[in-house]
Structure of DtxR family iron (Metal) dependent repressor:
Amino acid sequence: MLSDVMEDYLKAIYQLQRETDERIKTSAIAEELDVTSPTVTSMLDKLEDRGLVDREKYRGVTLTGEGETVALEVIRHHRLLEAYLTEHLDYDWAEVHEEADRLEHHISENFEARVADALDQPTVDPHGSPIPSADLEPPERPDGASVTEFDEGDVVIVEEVADRDAEVLSYLADHGVEPGVELEIMEVAPFGMVTARSSSHDDSVSLPESVAHHVRVAVPAELEQ
Amino acid sequence: MLSDVMEDYLKAIYQLQRETDERIKTSAIAEELDVTSPTVTSMLDKLEDRGLVDREKYRGVTLTGEGETVALEVIRHHRLLEAYLTEHLDYDWAEVHEEADRLEHHISENFEARVADALDQPTVDPHGSPIPSADLEPPERPDGASVTEFDEGDVVIVEEVADRDAEVLSYLADHGVEPGVELEIMEVAPFGMVTARSSSHDDSVSLPESVAHHVRVAVPAELEQ
DNA sequence: ATTTAGGGTTAGATGAGGCTAAAACAGGGT
DNA sequence: ACCCTGTTTTAGCCTCATCTAACCCTAAAT
Ligand SMILES: [Mn+2]
Ligand SMILES: [Mn+2]
Ligand SMILES: [Mn+2]
Ligand SMILES: [Mn+2]
């Protein structure tokens, strides 16, 4: 069996891989998990021994198929929990992350299945992130793109708000940036700051690049094809 | 903060104390938690350092007030989880224990409160065990007594079935021994085996002492006063 | 081709939580 | 009073996940 710490490493590597498509460096993992580099190195040794990562010393790691499956399993647990906590236990959008981040390592497969049943097999969590299916096949890359890649005048629909910080999420909700809402892009500054107006609010919001790049949006269906 | 292992020790000591009223011996804890005596000794050192147990070397421990509060906290989590899993996630009476035994260490106070709300502040779990109140005051000793203390011909109501083994619990449910049912005692053998007939079933059940002493029953209200 | 800056790995320590084997103790039997 | 037996504690060791300090490698700059 894998420890919850190992699960966190695999999840972190998976998520870093989604962003870069390159081998993941020790320092990136260290920063993500808030541990020191030597700690990461020794854990990568263990994960390599167990066949969960492919490693080239000094050049970073990638997940093996098996490692990816474990990561997807943990992410499925996490996102199902987030969905369940908001739907059935009166949690707020902004506060679910921390709870799910602990519980994801401690629920049984049975619990996972009951939660999925209670939610009628959901496919996205409250932040709009896709929930991996029960078979743990690598999911398709979702459509849309970061809001930072659009231009003044574009009208888009928010698909996902992938930030994990409760205060940032509360702020976004207060300003009408949630999955499903329509945004009109007002300005994209050279340093990545995005200013937009939400269809559900009268004023506009400005998001620094660090926040904006977690907001994935898509062009509304009518404008496609 | 306390580790989940420490929480398990405190819970075990609390529960052993409920049964004996004497100082709890190293070997009793070792057996309960399935570890060796030296392991228990060293953990008792740590718990004593933190003021959670009173210790006399070679003579066992008792919980301090603070230790008892922690134990009650963990037990509250456990029993709320058992109740929630059966009420809202379609778990069976018999299978909740294992899940609750892990999760009890990993839920937040917020989660505890939401679960208690969803259940409308329950006072007993599915096995009939009392759920400690949110203020964690030591609860009253529940009324009734082990079914082994009754005699042929007595008619009693099952108050609690405190066994933790899923197979034993399934067996008991199959034979009509659950909280709320009426039992007529048919025989109490000298070695503690109890034979009884459940009001909800036609045949009778025989329970060895080891099982029977977990079945707490009370005389029906009409016969009291 | 060297240097060098920056990140990665190795070495060694720590604190939990566990083990086995050996020593020390409590309490009952003579 | 002494001994015996069974339990508890001590001593010493292990693994896991973490750290700091020291050393080493890669890749870019000269
Ligand atoms: Mn999350
Ligand atoms: Mn799963
Ligand atoms: Mn239980
Ligand atoms: Mn609590």
